[in-house]
Amino acid sequence: MVVIDKPVTAKKNEDFKGAPPCLVTLASQGFPEGSRNMALFQLGIYLRERFPEKLEEKLDYYNSKYFKPPLPSREVLTIFKQVEDKKYFYRCEEPMFKTVCEKIKCQSQKFGVGNSATNEIMGLKKWVSDNPVYELTHNGKVIILTVDQLSSHSEYRKQCIAQANESPRPMAPAIWADMVDALLKNMQEDDFIQLPGEVTAKGSVF
After folding, report:
1. Total domains present in the chain
2. Which of 126, 145, 146, 136 is closest to 194 using CA atoms?
3. Looking at the structure, do residues 161 and 131 belong to the same domain, yes or no?
4. Percent of the chain with pLDDT over 90
5. 20: Cβ–Cβ under 8 A, 6 or more apart, which residues?
6. Residue 171 domain-assigned (yes or no)
7. Among residues 107, 133, 151, which one ends one of the domains?
8. Which residues of 156-191 are buried (b: 16+ CB within 10 A; e: fewer)?
9. Is residue 94 part of a domain?
10. In this predicted structure, what is the pLDDT of residue 95?
11. What is d(CA 2, CA 28) in angstroms, rounded to the nearest whole number?
């Protein structure tokens, strides 16, 4: 078993910002013996998406930091040549990744897979009043939504265009429903903001 010194979480470790959850989980657990080449390949896809201009440098860094012992330089170079070719993408069906796959969560990560692979959707807050309003962070930009706009991805896309000048790709209703459900379940106590019944998150009066 390859061991790292401290548990890895996406929130606490900038190395895995916006990464597929499977990579965060496996890095925290330690990559199984004999899986390092495949693990570094998967990391390489993530690094290519996040650091396209520094891919080779970052591969060396992650190899030395997260693999003990690190892979030999010649193997890292081989992996680099593979992952820099954009015809290669995440190998989600590999058993080591499939067993810890969180597909819905991965679709909400900036460097994850699926319809929202280029978008980071996070930080759901609810402005509690007689007519509740929601705040959601899309690629670092705050979007204000009604219940109807949050529940419909087509309406959400319209608000991204209007408020963030971005147009996310269309998404199947069932996938969006699961993503919203996960965001709702992850809300903490301080994500609920109490407001007078007649006031909205934008400060307007109903």
Report:
1. 2
2. 126
3. yes
4. 45
5. 42, 46, 90, 106, 109, 111, 112, 113
6. yes
7. 107
8. bbebbeeebeeebeebeeebbebbbeebeeeeeeee
9. yes
10. 85
11. 10
pLDDT at 201 > cutoff 70: no
Range of the domain at 84: 14-107
Strand partners, 205: 199
Long-range contacts of 74-79 (CB under 8 A, 24+ apart): 75/37, 75/40, 76/40, 79/37, 79/40, 79/41, 79/44
Confidence bin at 115 (pLDDT 50/70/90): very low
Cβ–Cβ under 8 Å, residues 141 and 123: no
On whether both 93 and 32 belong to a single domain, the answer is: yes
Which pLDDT score, from 0 to 100, does residue 35 have?
86
Least confident of 60-64, 120-124, 131-135, 152-156: 120-124
